[in-house]
Backbone:
């Protein structure tokens, strides 16, 4: 960035500005080069009408209320990462300001493994590896029927949380859940800042990448994800499932991105 700035910004009295000079001036101003915080893309509708309203409705929920939610999510783990060469210059307390964040969809390219989980304050499901794409039929037959329904039958006071992905909101899925008396917690679309499983996924990702022998193919990656999921204690998951502060943060951000 400093090199580019030096190239396109000639000085009035000194037309040759070196990249090092630019770096020095930025450092004097308290700015340092950092990777931007990556956020999911939000449209104005998501920003105003959904996340903010949802946070207003649920901000007074108690810890006991949240303990009754089975929070579920799917995530695609990529075998390799991008080079992460994008950087921003910011001050120490500007991690989450809009100008210092990068919006992009979370599913990257390359070889990957999709997994599903369900987590609550005191319980968890197994980590389910999903082969191929997950549509509404497979979500109903491979996730809801063998995993979610038995869990909620064993814990009848709990509510299912899943986002508004098309596979979750399809008519066949809604009818299936209604037919089995499964209550569903309303959830705004594209709201990763409200979903505490984002931190769970981050923990799982770090555990897998810290292994002595990193997975070299998708089969090894799937096995490593399942193994590390089993190594995460319920207490660690419980510590990450503290959602009440998220509602307040979204309200302060007027429905926009937060530090979560």
Residues:
């Amino acid at each position: 960035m400093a090199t580019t700035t030096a190239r396109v910004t000639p000085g009035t009295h000194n037309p040759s500005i070196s990249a090092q000079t630019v770096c020095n001036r930025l450092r004097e101003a308290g700015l340092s080069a950092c990777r931007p915080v990556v956020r999911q893309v939000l449209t104005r509708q998501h920003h105003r009408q959904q996340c903010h309203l949802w946070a207003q409705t649920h901000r007074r929920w108690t810890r006991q209320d949240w303990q009754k939610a089975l929070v579920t999510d799917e995530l695609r783990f990529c075998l390799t990462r991008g080079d992460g060469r994008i950087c921003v210059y910011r001050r120490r307390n500007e991690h989450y300001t809009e100008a210092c964040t990068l919006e992009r969809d979370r599913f990257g390219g390359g070889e990957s493994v999709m997994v599903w989980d369900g987590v609550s304050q005191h319980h968890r499901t197994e980590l389910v590896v999903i082969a191929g794409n997950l549509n509404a039929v497979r979500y109903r037959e491979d996730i809801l029927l063998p995993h979610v329904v038995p869990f909620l039958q064993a814990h009848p006071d709990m509510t299912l949380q899943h986002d508004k992905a098309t596979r979750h909101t399809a008519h066949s899925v809604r009818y299936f859940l209604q037919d089995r008396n499964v209550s569903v917690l309303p959830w705004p679309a594209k709201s990763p800042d409200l979903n505490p499983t984002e931190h769970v996924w981050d923990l799982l990702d770090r555990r897998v990448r810290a292994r002595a022998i990193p997975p070299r193919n998708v089969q090894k990656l799937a096995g490593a994800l399942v193994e590390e999921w089993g190594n995460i204690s319920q207490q660690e998951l419980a510590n990450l499932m503290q959602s009440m502060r998220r509602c307040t943060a979204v309200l302060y951000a007027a429905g926009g991105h937060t530090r979560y």
Observations:
- Residues 123 and 234 are 7 Å apart (CA to CA).
- The domain at 39-82+106-252 is CATH 3.30.420.10 (Nucleotidyltransferase; domain 5).
